[in-house]
Amino acid sequence: MMVYYRLYWALWMLSCFGQYSGQDLQFPEPANGAVGASVVLAPDNPPSTPILIAQWSFTSTFIVAFMSGVTTESPTYKGRVGFDSNTLALTLQNLRKNDSGIYKLSVTTTTGEILTGETSLQVIAKIYNVTLIGPEETLIEGDSFANITSEGTGIIDSVQWMKDNRPLSPSNSIIFSPDFRSVSISPVQRSDSGEYQCIYSNPDSSETATYSLIINYGPDDVSIRGPDVVDLGVPVSLSCSANSEPSASFRWMFNGTDTNVTTDTFTIDKTDFTDSGDYDCTAWNSVTNRSASQRHVLEVKVSGGGLSIGVIVGIVIGVLVAVSGICGLTVYLIKTKKIPKINKQQKEQASGAPQTTQDHIYEGILEFQATSQGGAIRENMSERNVNQAENDDNVYVNHGVTNRPRAATPPPSMKPSSRAPVKK
After folding, report:
1. What DSSP line would sit under 394-418, residue for residue?
2. What is the pTM of this model?
């Protein structure tokens, strides 16, 4: 204690009777420090002559003094200060908020020259432990809301919110709390997905916390890329895509039948006519439990501009219908006996012309008729002839005619034949 008072009186005497040079000690810009940190205060132009006495003070409070090679600290700053006699620098450690203020330095050289200077210090509380707390539940577009809250320690002068490194502004769905420490989003949209940043700052400290927000949505905008018309025997790939978070799974159906293909691409190694039809791709999101589908129509045709499968099927059906119609008409005409049964020779005698191809066809029909009706026809004709002969006999008897004319026996060449001759 006695040393302290001696030093004080010595400094007082020098300040009263020493030679003041009028040269001031220059300091840089005012210093800033954070609570708990350290700061160094030093003049830019220390004297070149040896120092006899140097003293640092805070307002009117003595901090440290140097005299005759001995450094003396104030009990108030014991263990928190340091002094460099060469640079006259004062080091303050473990800064406190009340360390802010004006600091003065007085120096007396061995020549009796007195130099003075002052600087200021602003101590700011350090910001630390800044964090963001967001929703833990799964967020689905249009159905959920999100609340993000910030926390931190220290003196906070300002709070700034960013999203994906761009300023976050309030809107109808984005609302900030009065102290700007939290933000609410309701309802969430897919555009709300991204990285949110909250920045706590003061003149000496700045801390940033981040939080990634994921909004689940979709699937929607399902589309299928691929050709509409392809040649026969070529490879084909159909690709399905959809907007979805998380990525959608896919299922393919062909003409309403499940193909068991569950990838985004449906591949046909070599096309066939049977590959023509409707291809349906269904996208499904396992988180939103939503699905959406798209249809693609594929047509396979003969290469080189040939007929498509649809046209070929139409032609085949048309031919079958025509053949069935012709056969049906033929059977109908035969059964209704609308085709006249004319003897081939009689037809030739009447026309006097040889048979043509049409005549041969007609002859075949007559032969078919005779064969199908068989002996029944001949039997009916024989019966009819016998009955006719009996009737004729009765007529002649009733009229007293005993000798009736008999039918002339036809020559062998005129005997009826079961098959008409074919003219060569």
Report:
1. HHHHHTT---PPPPPPPPGGGS--S
2. 0.53
